Structure formats: C-alpha cells, structure tokens
Amino acid sequence: IYHLHNKNTIFAKNFRLIKRVLICPLNWGLGHATRCVPIIKALTSQGCEVIIAADKAPLSYLQHIFPNIEFIKLPGFNPIYSRSNSQVLKMLASFPGAIMDFHRDRKAIKSIVRTHNIDIVISDNRFGCWSKEAHSVFITHQLNIQIPSLWKWATPIINLFNNSYIRRYDEVWVPDSEEEPSLSGVLSHPFKLDKKISYIGLLSRFCNNEANNKGEKGTKYLFILSGPEPQRTILEDIILKQAKSTKDNIVILRAMPDSADLRKDIPANVVMLNNADDSLFVHLIQDSENIICRSGYSSLMDMVRLNRTAFLIPTPGQTEQEYLAKLHGDKGYFKWCKQSDFKIDNVRMPDISIHDKFDDNEEKINDFIEKWLNELLTTK
Fold this sequence. Notes:
Layout: E1 5-6, E2 9-11, E3 17-18, E4 20-25, H1 31-34, H2 37-45, E5 49-54, H3 56-65, E6 70-73, H4 88-115, E7 120-124, E8 135-139, H5 155-166, E9 171-174, E10 196-199, E11 219-224, H6 231-243, E12 250-253, E13 270-273, H7 278-287, E14 288-293, H8 297-305, E15 311-312, H9 319-330, E16 335-336, H10 364-379
Parallel strand pairs: 4-5, 4-7, 5-6, 7-8, 8-9, 9-10, 11-12, 11-14, 12-13, 14-15, 15-16
Antiparallel strand pairs: 1-2, 2-3
C-alpha cells in the first residue's frame, strides 16, 4: 500500500478511501471493551486506521489484544454503586458528576478529532464521545431503559434524557437482531428515536468454532466476576466464604486486567485469576461444568457465541441485568438468582444448546462494516 495524503483522507493501492476511526468504550467493567473487539478487527480488515481512547481495565485489556494500535488515555466517569440492593439514590447523587464527565469527554474528543485527523468516532455507551467534525456512531443495546417498579413513573423522563444524548450522534448501532429472537428484549426497542438505527447482530470476540463443550469437565465451578465496585467484591466475598464449605474445585476469574495483586484468604480448593487472555478464557469455559456470572449483556453474548448457558447473578439494583436474568430465566435459557439468595449448592445449568436459540452469525459484523463503509464513502 502506498499513501497519498490529502488532509484527513488516505488512499490505498486500490484507491479505496481509508478512514481514521476513533473507538471509545465505556470503562464500567470489561464488557463494553470486549464487544468492541470484533468491530475493531472488521474496521482494520477494511483498511481503516483505528485509534482507541480508553481508561483503566478496558485500556489494559485492549492494549493486550491490539499491541500495534495507537492508544489515548481517556479518563471516564466512575459510578459509585451502593452496597444495598437499590442503586437509584446513589445514581441520583452521582448525576451531576456524570454530566460534568460527559462535558469533559466532549472537550477531549473535540481536541482528539482535530489533532489526529479523525474521520469517524465510534462510542460504546460514552455519551460525550461525539463530534460535529466527524461521523459519530453510538453503540448501545439500551434504547428503552428499565426502571425499578417504585420509580416506573420516571421511565419517560429517564428515556428522554438517555435519548437526548444519543440524538447528538449521526447514527446508532444495536448489537442484537431487530426481530425475534432478540437477546436484549425490550431494551433495544426505542419508544421514539429520530436517528438511523442499525441492528448489527450479536458482538463477541470469540468464534463459533471455539464452542466445544464435549468431554469431561475438569472444573466444577467457574465464577466470572465483573462490573462496578463494591458489588464485584461483595460477590467475591460471598463465593470465598461458601467455597470453604465444599471440596469441589473452583476457579474465580476476577476480570481485573490492570491489577497484579491477589487476595490472601483463598481456600485450597480455589484458583483465583485476575485476568485470562482469550485462549485461556475459552479453555475455562469449555472445561467447566458450571459457569456462574453476571447477567451483563456482553457476558450473555459471549455465552451464546460459545454455546454455553450459565447461572446468572445480576448486580443488585442494576435493572438492566435484573431484566435480562428474568427474561432468559423465564424462557429456560439460563438459571438465575438474586445475589443475596446465592447458594453454591443450588447452582444448576439448563440442558440446552443456547447458540441454537439466537441468530448469531460471527461474519455479520464484517459484512455490515464493509457495506457501511462503502455507503459512508459515497455519501461523505
């Protein structure tokens, strides 16, 4: 490839326009970063030059996956979750800080777009990562936010606020199917949104051919911990306490790639890992009889791709996870319980092929990106 530079545009050997794309995943856990992986791979395969702006665990994780890509440290808002089963009051208290953070993101993106000649900004759930000077895309599966029953009256207000930020983007990508079967249910269907919405299919960093669940299982229980503190550590404490009363072997994957320290109070039958690369993660999934994880949307997409069901423990007070756990629990696709009710002896796995329940084609994102770029290049 030879390059002919002309402001923001670079021409490839076949004279196809190469775009500079900025990817901005939300830093609440790893899920938003992991589901960006197939998008980043699809963009680079189409000749795009990708730059990633992230912070904390997503930054560490994506730097490991893409060591040759340029990274920009973009600090994000850190929500403070309550130790109780309701997060509403804590979220309301943090609301002013979130608004300020959106504004900081907006200023940072404006500078990055200009200094790095960015053509496209793709934000995974970061409300402030958009630009008038670049084509801006917002990735989300939450266009219709679920509210606790006590606060149902506020649903129109919350969704109005949510969509007021989303409307600042040029278009929206939803990682799901538009028609049933839908993994996100009512979450991904807006009551009103005057923006182009594309349902781009399930996003997972894994491949269908990695779904090999046959044979003997060497691990009795695999716990995949994720999400914000202090609830992540609260669940970890519950698991370690109950682990002392069983002789079964347990693996705890903490999803903390930016941490080097491990706890000292680990029972002999427990193996604890701060992080696992993709190959080890797949091995653990294949080798485990029982998988226990949060009902975060990215976790569900990974389970579908790897054809493993799981026992779900939604983060207390996180209504999206509670809705997804109940939705797929009622369908018999997953088992679940509240964190306060969890007992390791009650863990049971549905005997189904979860991949057969959803339209999951790993090539869909590649086809979508190719078509989307072609359309974008002819209209810009």
